Amino acid sequence: MPTREWQRELSLVIAGTLRTLLPSLNNDELAMLALDCHPWNAGLFLAVLTQSEVDADPLLADPAEMAAWNYYDCGEQSDKWVVDSLCETMRQDYYNSEDRDTIAQAYFRSCGAAISDELVSDVLNDYRLRPDFRVSVTHPDDGTEFCTQEDAR
Questions:
Q1: By the 8 A CB rule, do 146 and 79 touch?
Q2: CA 81, 82, 86, 87: dihedral to nearest 10 degrees?
Q3: CB of 17 within 8 A of CB of 45?
Q4: The pairing of beta strand 71-72 with beta strand 129-136
Q5: Which residues contact 99 (CB under 8 A, 6 or more apart)?
Q6: d(CA 104, CA 118)
Q7: pLDDT given at position 15
Q8: Cα–Cα–Cα angle for 99, 104, 110, nearest 5°?
Q9: What is the per-residue burial (b if ≥16 Cβ within 10 Å, else e) of 11-30?
Q10: Disulfide check for 151: which of 50, 87, 104, 147 has CB 3.0–4.6 Å away?
Q11: CA–CA separation, 51 vs 45, rounded Å?
Q12: How many Å apart are CA 57 and CA 18, to the nearest integer?
């Protein structure tokens, strides 16, 4: 199961990565910030959707389309995206459990809390955010959302 330390470390990594990403967005408004979580594949991928992308293709405003976003897996562009140990912990917990669904759900919830953390919100204050900006952690198989609209601000 994810610990508070695991969640806090993820929040710190997200916040640090967002700080380094800001200049590359050329002051474009953000429509969505998402974290793609795959406990079974040891994968954590940060994704940013800009308003200019939504203007060009409104269908991209769905978190299920995040792999098509220009800034999908944007953490790879930053030396702050150090998630190997977090991913490995997640993978081991998943495969060492007899109830993998419960473990996956716990990691989705923890990712939702991490991306909604005050550390991340503070960095987002430096960005231009759409009035309807939101954060998202969505189960990739069934679309269940693990961030509420209230978490987004």
A1: no
A2: 70
A3: no
A4: unpaired
A5: none
A6: 24
A7: 97
A8: 130
A9: bbbbbbbbeebeeebeebbb
A10: 147
A11: 20
A12: 24
Note if the pTM is more than 0.70.
yes
Residue 108 has which token pair?
Answer: 């989705």
Please write the tens of the pLDDT for every residue from 27-39: 899 999 999 999 9
pLDDT band with cut points at 50, 70 and 90 for residue 148: low
Q: How much is the CA Rg of the chain, to the nearest whole Å?
A: 15
Distance, CA of 129 to CA of 111 (rounded, Å): 21
Report residue 42 CA to chain centroid gap. Answer: 14
pLDDT, one tens digit per residue, over 40-81 is 999 999 999 999 999 999 999 999 999 999 999 999 989 999
User: Which residue type does 74 have?
Assistant: C
What span, in angstroms and rounded, lies between the C-alpha atoms of 119 and 114? 9
The H or E element spanning position 36 is strand 30-38
**Nearest CA-CA partner of 36 in 147, 151, 130:** 147
Tokens, residue 75: 């953490």
Looking at 22-117, list the stretches that DSSP marks H as alpha helix, in order from N- to C-terminal side: 51-56, 84-95, 100-115
Surface-to-core class of residue 9, CB atoms within 10 Å of its CB (0-12 exposed, 13-18 middle, 19+ buried): middle
